[in-house]
Sequence to fold (429 residues):
Amino acid sequence: MPSLLKCIDCGREYALDDRVTACHACGGLLDVAHDLDALRPAISRELFDRRLASWNPLDRSGVWRYRELVRPGVSAAQAVTRGEGNTTLYTAGPKLASYAGVARLQLKHEGENPTGSFKDRGMTGGVTQARVVGARSVICASTGNTSASMASYAAIAGLQALVFFPAGYVALGKVAQSLAYGATSVQVEGDFDDTLALVRRACDELPIYLLNSINPFRLEGQKTIVIELLHQRGWRVPDWIVVPGGNLGNSAAFGKALHELHALGLIDRLPRLAIVQAEGANPLYRSYLDGWQVRHTVRAETLATAIRIGNPANYPKAVRALRWTDGVVTEVSDQAILDAKAQIDAAGIGCEPASAATVAGIRRLVDEGTIGPGDDVVAVLTGHLLKDPDAVMKYHAGALPGLESTFANAMRTIKPSLDEVAALLDLRV
Fold:
């Protein structure tokens, strides 16, 4: 089989069906390393186009359609799929594009996945691998989206799911999904980084399969966000791909996808990658400013709960992705995130707060002259609007402490009078 697992630090190799999720020799992160020379004869744009017209369950998935670059050799019987992917690539209207500061803006909305976030792309890969290696129990630490996705896919696969949340740091819409899908849901007294450390120790000592994004098969699934958006664009490469930065799984996956696609000749150049962090959860940004001389960690705090991570597990792979793509990192305030979210929502697209960091980041990078107003930009939206309805309601009610509701759309109360209804129509004249 032309793929194996390889440590990005020491180079130790493992079989593709080994149960390992981190290097036994040095503790480093693992890649699914594909033999691109061996795969090249089998992969073409025409192959992926043909699969769009197929009813094969693997072809219908926006992940397994590109299976040679995800987990070669997987069968329909092995794959745990909900038809994930196939998400819309929206072209922003003039108002939203103007707000971002660019004339050409598209938004790849991963909130349209089955459980409402990009995590489904990674989880179909991770849970499929759990089935391949014979796992009976799976576990993750989560700020919400990972838990919802793992709980769903584990239920379909008939696996026990254990979800560990940092107490008080997760939006209720996400916890509700974990409970609904039947996962054993546990709150840990600490933040996400404390919770992930506990989960990793448990996997070292107990017969549980880890499904956080340090699992390399998670990132192989998440690579297909980039593969699919380029397929949707007829393989026309944008100038920039912009993504929120939390645990940095997507950032790492995007870089790997672009590197492989370019090596295979499916794209003729690499776009630049921009990673956007919240000011209160900005360890990668701090390291970027220091020229990667120091790996910073922070005690994270931001209203964008999906990226409230102070010690991102995929830091080394994200730095590699930035080097491959001549990428940049920036930070934005919670005020900027919530205002950008209001603009995305009002455009009829909608997203959770962390997703809106992309548009806020584009706006800042344009102001600083890094992104040109004529550049072709794709922003990745990672989660559905209803993942955090509390943030929506409080923003429009002017009830978020310390933040202004710049673009509030306040609820109105009227008497049961036709005149009052008519007065509402005047608001749009």
Q: What stands out?
A: Residues 249-264 form the longest helix (16 residues). The radius of gyration is 21 Å. DSSP finds 17 helices and 13 strands in the chain. The mean pLDDT is 95.
